Amino acid sequence: MKSKTALFASLMLAGTSFPALAQNAPGTAETDAPSPQDSQLDPAETPQAPASDFAQEGVTDPTTSPVDGNAIVVTAQRREQTLQDVSASVIALGTDRLQTSQVNGLQDLQTIVPSVSFGNDFNQAKIFIRGVGANTSTTGNATGVALHVDGAVVSRAEAQLTSLFDLERVEVLRGPQGTLYGRNATGGSINLITAKPTSYLSGYGRLTYGNYNAIVAEGAISGPITDSVLFRVASKIENRDGFGDNPVTGSEVDDLSRRMIRGMLQFNISDTTDLLLSGEYFRQNDNSGAIHYLRASFPDVPRLAPLGIGGYAEDPRDLASETDVGTKTETYAFTGTLRSELSDVVSITNIANYRSFESSLFQDLDLSAVVNSLATTGQSTTVQERRIDSEQYSNELQFNVALDNFDLIVGGFYFHERQRPIDNVGLARRNGQAQNIDVLQDAGVNLADAYALCGYSPDTVVGGSSQIAPKRVCIRSNLGTDAWAIFGQANIGLGMLTPALDAFTLKLGGRYSEEDVDSANPAIIIARGGLGPVIRFTTEGTFTERSFSDFTPEVGLEWQPNPDVLVYYTYAEGFKAGSGENSAGSTTIVDPEQIQNHEAGIKATVLDDISVNLAVYSYDLEGAQLNKTIAGGPSGYQTIFENAAAIEARGLELDIFGRVTDTFRLSGSLSYTDAEYADFETLDPLDPRNVATPGVPAYDPVTNPDPTAFGAPCSGDLDPATPTCEIQLAGNAVRNTPEWAFNVHAEYDIPFANGSEVTLQGDVTHRSRVYFTEYEREIESSAAYTMVDASAIFRDADDRFSVQLWAKNLFDVDRKSSTFALATGRLIGNTWLPPRTFGATVAFNY
Q: Which residue numbers delimit the TonB-dependent receptor-like beta-barrel domain (predicted)?
């Protein structure tokens, strides 16, 4: 049985756990690459905690560690530090917390990390920290919260939806990370630190069964191949029935089917140099990611009635559609991390990464069983297909200098990404209306070109001779990014100047970034729902490119009057370059997003075992990149990608964690965020005057004399250059950000005479109302809620075997996780947080 201090080291505050300390756990250096010296240690030959602790939980036995056992070692600032010594607001989640809280994806973090909000629409992750995040639903735009896996960035919001498995810890950095984390980390960074190979044979297995016929199986094996070559292989399978059904097809909705595997080889080239090679594969094929029917967009405007009336599902978690929602994803990545200690004070690290991501999403945008076509309803077809093909390369080279009163990190970063998304709207998953062929041919369009833009080749129906018709909207974009940066950060102990300043450290950092962005959006649109005319956009006619550069500084001062108290202030800037989007004929590349952030904090350890961390901050953000769609236009919808003028925010984050008694541990985290638009004039997608076409029935100027369409003023002269019906949103709250959020976590041990024990643990999570758009409409929000998770865990005396009974969302609270105004169907859709789930997990390690 592990010691109580070591067990307490598994505790986290709102997700704060206690990863391994440097001398005991490979893989906690500034690049998370294991050092060859550490990996050669066999725990059986050293006076340390049991091997299972290191292999699975990364816990250090305080009786042999020169660092307090209550310390949490993180690499948030690209070097090893205890959490209490990091002058930034950071949350760290260790293996034990991730596993016992049943964290399988990033969306699960928001229940235990209050400052993180997560939404999901169009199969894209919408991660927000402190009111900054992903504000678009068309692919192409980078996220405001960066995701890194072992130091390598994951650029696509769609690729951030993959599962979490075999992790040593997760670090959540709150606030802009413009110096050490490039590529648009204006809101923060989430760092996934994977478990690394060990020099001794170790492994684990976990099997979970729950309601909705959920099965999760995860396992890993690690050990030496030779004295200088180590390996690790981990895999995970997730299956679950749907939370809802499609009453038309009988298929499930929001089910889950995922497979993933990761392999590692570590080559200890010498006592001071090692190379870690990692390969990862992920596959998903299910009916998840569904947007459900919520309400008509224009309930009092007959000319803009939704296209699916009479075919909506009755149960909010069901989705009636003639076409099943489908999400299919395949992605793989390779990372090579070379680390070498050139001397006692200088080391270098190089992280090279390649990632390929392919995904397809099918959904019917009328969210209804009604089959729309000119032949059946006289309406536009509404079945959407979105396919994404993305490749990215990145390389980061770091030099690290560590002296008694001086730490320096300098480096260079390169990133390249090429995206080729396809967005189609037609009659079914792979075809449009039959009459589309005649309309295209009459317009002189080469059918081969139309098929190419739709992303498939001409084919015949099985058993017949009817040709599959191109869809009425086909967009095949080509989006590219090349980014370069040089960065550095120095921590200067001012005691080198005079002993009177021994307690003070000056932090100076900066990053210079350049990005070249290009965009092309060729498309074919058959207007009026397929009647024509045909509108065509070429690659040459839509190609555009822009270059951006910026310098983001960071200046901070730390005061540590004693080992138990750290007071700090930091000024930091962040930069997110402009980008294009996949929108028919678009030549828009928006302006950059820039943030200036002030943060002050105090980290204190009191009564030996209680840690109290408080951070207060304020920021100004200019040029927030936002996306919306408005009904109407030749395709039935129009995309607007724009910059909001200004956002102002202030807030605080309070983290408290500690051991009340030897058997009772309590922790909590509180987040307050007041983030609002200071200046933002924009169009309202739910204002019928902004709809460019009258819809069905046709517009009647007698009964509706002022229906001004997008592109013309609301009143006065009809100069198309005049801004249209714009409203000022100053004072409105930003998207996906509750004003108040908290989490309370408790653990209580019941020991038995034979050394085994049962741990009872629970979480209470609360969030105030969250708005999913900038318009502060109740229909596009989630009401305040409180959720409770609970579990009981039995561990044997050797901590080799455990059984957990668990329940999440114990009282079955129903709340939205996002909303989206579907312009094509003229309705508002939403996604849901998971309902009550419960089950049992059996685990063993060796």
A: 285-810
